[in-house]
Design a protein that fits this description.
elongated, 3-stranded antiparallel β-sheet, 3 strands, 25% strand
């Protein structure tokens, strides 16, 4: 049986792991002329325009650097 101290250590480790994971926020979603969805996502303070496949990889832990993504331009016209 686990001791209360071992349980507490396990819980603290789980919280630390969750806090250190990359967070991906989808800020907008639009469709290109050919019907392909493009999501604007916020990762570590930078915005990226990504396809569904890249979004899935980001959500599963890949970094923008690993995927060779370039930050999205800051113009608001790109979101319309």
């Amino acid at each position: 049986m686990r001791t209360p101290a071992a349980n507490q250590i396990s819980k603290r480790k789980a919280v630390a792991d969750a806090l250190s994971r990359q967070k991906v926020f989808v800020s907008s979603r639009r469709f290109r002329g050919d019907g392909q969805p493009i999501s604007r996502v916020l990762v570590s303070g930078r915005y990226y325009d990504v396809s569904d496949q890249l979004l899935d990889r980001l959500q599963h832990g890949a970094t923008p650097g690993e995927l060779e993504l370039e930050p999205a331009s800051d113009d608001a016209a790109g979101l319309q």
